Amino acid sequence: MTKVSESTPKQTSGGAARRSAARLAAVQALYQIDHSGAPEGKVLDEFLAFRLGDSFDTEQDVVPNKNLFAEIVRGVGAHTGVIDEEIANALSKKWTFERVEIILRAILRAGVYELQSSIDTPARVVITEYVDVAHAFYDGPEPALVNGMLDRISRILRPQEFSKNRDDAGG
Q: Global pTM?
């Protein structure tokens, strides 16, 4: 049996870890696009060529799923108006979409995009993934905000997933 070096990125195993790393990278790319106003294609190319490399998450040494990364960034770019409307509608009346911090917007946009387009991924998995992404950036109440917002939006976009679970629980 060949021992894998601790510095060798995990490429073949850990599909879930690679998808999680892709989501984190996508949020960072979306942040950069929103913050700098740089064109989506330029930021996407920069990440794919220089930032993702062999390993993105140096603590876990995980190579992100580049296809998922690109799909999220392109998908959010193509559907920003619809996604932002979903987020704005889910906000409390005290908040406007413009008041949401840029990194929170990026997390919510990516999460809503996946809820809209990745029907094979259960809503609860999407929510958990983006709450984990929020924890990478925040120690305060923001992950709970992401959880609540994505939960509210997922119940609108995928009501069948939640009503079925209630029926299974006898409720």
A: 0.84
Residue among 77, 56, 74, 78 at smallest CA distance from 65: 56
Range of the domain at 150: 15-159
How does pLDDT run along the chain (171 residues), one tens digit per residue?
333 333 334 444 478 999 999 999 999 999 999 999 999 999 999 999 887 865 554 455 788 899 999 999 999 999 999 999 999 999 888 888 888 999 999 999 999 999 999 999 999 999 999 999 999 999 999 999 999 999 999 999 999 998 754 445 444
- Burial degree of 32 (CB within 10 A; 0-12, 13-18, 19+): buried
Look at residues 129, 69, 141 and name the one whose alpha carbon lies nearest to residue 101.
Answer: 141
Residue 2 domain-assigned (yes or no): no
Strand partners, 57: 62
Count the domains in the chain.
1
| 7: in domain | no
